[in-house]
Structure formats: C-alpha cells, structure tokens
From TrEMBL:
Domain called ABC transmembrane type-1: residue spans: 28-328
Annotated TM spans: 21-42, 62-86, 145-164, 184-204, 269-289
Keyword Membrane: yes
UniProt keyword ATP-binding present: yes
Location within or outside the cell: Cell membrane
Membrane topology type: Multi-pass membrane protein
Protein name: ABC transporter ATP-binding protein
Record domain ABC transporter: where: 361-560
Amino acid sequence: MNFLSQYWQLIKPFWLSKQRLPSLGLLLVIISMTFGSVWLSVQFNQWNGDFYNALQQLDGSSIYRLLGQFVLLIGSLILVAVYSSYLQKKLLIDWRTWMTEQLTAQWLSDQHHHYHMKLAQTEPDNPDQRIAEDIYLLIDLSLDLLLSFLRSVLTLGSFVTILWNLSGEMSFNLAGQEWHIPGYMVWMCIAYTLVGTAITHWIGKPLQRLNFNQQKREADFRAALIERRENSEMIGAQRGEAIEREALGTKFTFVAQNWYKLMVKERNLGFFTVGYAQVSSLAPIFFALPQFLAGIIQLGGLMQIKMAFMQVSGSLSWFIYSYRDLAKLSATVERLTTFNLKLHDIELPSTAKHPIAPKALRATLRVHVDHERSLLEVNNLVVEQGQIVMLKGRSGLGKSSLLRTLSGFWPNFIGEYQRTDSIWVPQKLYLTTTSLKALVCYPQSANNIDDQTCIDALQQVGLNALTTSLDSVETWSSKLSGGEQQRLMFARLLVNKPPLILLDETTSSLDQSAATLMIKTLKHALPNSAVLMVSHQPELWAMADRLIDLDNQSPVALGA
Ligand SMILES: Nc1ncnc2c1ncn2[C@@H]1O[C@H](COP(=O)(O)OP(=O)(O)OP(=O)(O)O)[C@@H](O)[C@H]1O
C-alpha cells in the first residue's frame, strides 16, 4: 500500500498537469492497440482450431483459404506490435522530459535547494542518477507493466470463456461418489498458476532490496570515477594513481558483491520461471489428454485448448513474469520518493531585508559551526554604496563562513543582517565547458549581452588575448591559469554590475600589480557598488575604505 501511494505521488503531477492532454491521447491510442492485439489473438485461436481440423479432414480448399487468412492476421499483428512500441517510446520521452524539467527545477531552484541540501548534509546519494536514470526507469517500467497488465486482463477475459467452453465437464469417481467439474481446464489453469505465483514470490522477495542496492552502488562507482577525472591533475602531480586505483577497486568490489547476490537470486528465480514457461506449453495437453483419448475432442480442439490454456495461464502469470520489473520499479520509486522528500524538507532561510541607502550591507551577528562551536562575531559591520571594506584574520577563523552567512546560505548564526542584492565569489571557482562569452556573462544569458560589453570587460581585467575567443567552447577550468580564472571573475562582475560584491580571496593567485589593478578597476568601473572582501594580501589593504581585523575584532580606519 505504501508503495502504491508513493508511486501515485510521483506520477500524479504529470497526469494532472496541463501538458498531460497529448500524452493522454497517446496513451489511449496505445491501449486501443493493446485491445486490438488481444482481439487478433482471439481470431488466431479460432484460426488454429479451423486449420488443424481441416488438416485432420484433409480438406484442401479450406487449408488454402485459411493460409490466406493467416497472412492477413500475421500482417495485422506485426503492424500493431511495431506501432504500439513506437508510440510507447514517444509517450516515454514526452513524460520523461516533463518530469526531468520539474525535478531539475526543484533541485536547481532559485532558492538554491541543491546547495542548502548539501550544507545541511541531507543530500541523498547521487542526485544525478535520480534525475537521469531513475525517472527514465520509472516511466519505462510503468508503461511496460501497465500495458502488459491490461493485455493480461483482456486476454484473460477473452480466453477464459473459450477455455471454459472447450474443456467441457470432467467426471470422476472419488470415495464411492460421482464428481462432475464443469470447465475443469479453467480450474486446472487457476490452480497451476496460483502455485507458480506463490513460489515466485517466495524466491524473488529479496530482489527489491538487492536492486535498490545495485542502483546505489553503480552510481557511487560512477561518481567516484567522475571525481577522479575532475581531479586528474592533482592525482598525477602527487603520483596518487596507485592509491586511487585501490579506492576505485574497493568501490567496484561493492558493485560486484551485490551483483553476485543479485545473480544468485535471479538464477533461482530463472530456474523456476524458465521451467514454468516450458512446462506451461505441455501442461494443457497433459491435462486434456483424457478427453482427447476418449474421443470427446478432436486434434483441432486439443490445439485450441492448448493455446487458450497458455493464454489464460500467461495472463494469470503476469505477476510471475513481471516480478523482476516490479522489484526494479519498487526500488526506483523508493529512490525518487526519498529525493522528493529531502527536497521538500529543506528549511529555507528568509530573504534578507534591504538596508536603508546608502548602506548596502549592515550586520551584527555571531557565526557558529554548530551548537558547540562558535566562529567569529561582527558588530555593526557596515558597507556603504561605493565603499570597499576588507576583512583580514587568521586561517580557519570563519571568514568564508561569514561571507556564506551574508549571502544567505549559512543558517548557523545568531543576530541579524540586511543587504542589497549581491554576488558572492567563493574561493573555489566554477567554470563549465562552454563558450567564453557565456562564462563572462554568467549568471545572465550570453544572448542578453552584446559582444562589445564582454570585450571591454576582458580588456579592463587584462585578458586582452582572449577577446577573440568569445565564441570558443573550451574546458576553461583547465585551460586558464588560476590567476586568469580570477581575472575572469572580475570581468564577470563588471558585466553583471551587482550592487553588493562579496569576494573571498579572489585575488590570491594574482601578483601584486595585477591584484591592485583588479581592485582599482572595480572601483572605477562600478563606483556605486559596495565591496566586502576577504584578503590576506597586505598590498591591497591600503586600497580599502576600511580594514577590519577579525583577529582583534576591531575596525582599522584606512583611506577616506
Ligand atoms: N560546511 C561546513 N560544515 C562544517 N564545518 C565547516 C563548514 N564550512 C566551514 N566549516 C568550519 O568552519 C571553520 C571556519 O572555516 P572558514 O572556511 O570559514 O574559515 P576561513 O577563515 O575562511 O579560513 P581560510 O582563511 O583558511 O579560508 C573551519 O574550521 C571549518 O572546518
């Protein structure tokens, strides 16, 4: 029950959305095709009876007429089978596009859910896998299982009557009493399938947990590989390959260990399901043999009974044949539900109030790591429009945590702050593989900004050599030096012109003259922006309107 309600919560948003209408139409067409294929199977059953009877009676003209019908029936079956699979794929991609957009928007939301989840350490493992793979699995398995279930129900409805009518009545003597069982083949079929289902469930029960673990371990292994690839320079520089191979080997051992367990359970289930499928084709002949030997039914009747029995038993065995997929679906639903719950459970900080101009930032607060460890305190920290205030202090004091707090990301603080809209440049920079122009304009779209504005910004920060590469798509994070990447951040600020700029040692890789040039450029190009900057570079301190020594918690007045 829990599974069904979780499953409904996952699929409900799409099927209640406005975009559902074309998909609903598509689903109805696919279901109609499923109906059509069952109807064709019923016709095929009738054909089987007529054909074998004509064979037994050596009726040449009927045999040729029936062969013509066969071509028509098979042609229609092929057409329905191919098109229903084609349309199913179309429905899958429409539904997947919608769900992927929704989940990505919730994760990468404007309220920064992705980052808050990480900071609060509530991020579930491998969100990338949940978005890329689990959504696909959820939809693919749902459609397959729904259609196979509908086909089973329809087939059951169509063939159970046929089987009932064909099987006649079974009479036997037991304990001195005469017994009559009407439609006895139907009862045999039900009993046969129920036993099969019970055994399948008993063997296959551990599959759901094992599938869940397999998906997680595969994703962990993939994430570990990506991490190595991203840090290949550091690994190479420190000759770390051997230890990295060992770490990856351990991760892969987890994959293989679970795989072996899964293999064993699937093998045991396979022994049963494959054997069951084979026996199912002979069982009806065995059950109907007494009637055939007694001359009550002909060869055509026996063949029809065999086919009808297999159809009824196949439909009743839906659970047996779908067991693996159901186990996979259940694991997928659990993973996506956890992801959704974690996204909704995040406590978002309230947005900061704006201070009264000309103040761009005002803060009196104490930052903590957690309940037990407090970091630093600022008392009436004020930065006005056009001012540059610098922060200095020993490593590990909490300067980055302070900027994180003022940006609205760090929830562990006591006190209050007000600020205008801001851009914070953390120590670790992020440059995706995209065009240089897109990096300069980020977070704005490159389409909204003309080339000349970007060229001017690049020239102002001393990246003249790059002005001809605006449209080049490169892995800029490995192509640019650390200092060039920091210059690029200043070019980005010049283009975006935020009212408040929070800089965390953004000049640390630059030499003295380049670092001072960046600050001068910022001051000159954005005279109305306020800047709060953490810096360990004494040569810059003289450029600040105020320097705050956080070790002593005292403001040191400098400049104007
Ligand atoms: N996300 C986090 N979770 C737990 N502790 C953290 C987190 N971020 C920082 N800390 C802890 O807070 C303390 C202060 O870190 P922070 O990076 O703010 O110092 P800093 O003054 O900027 O140091 P540095 O000058 O070396 O950059 C450190 O001991 C660090 O371990």
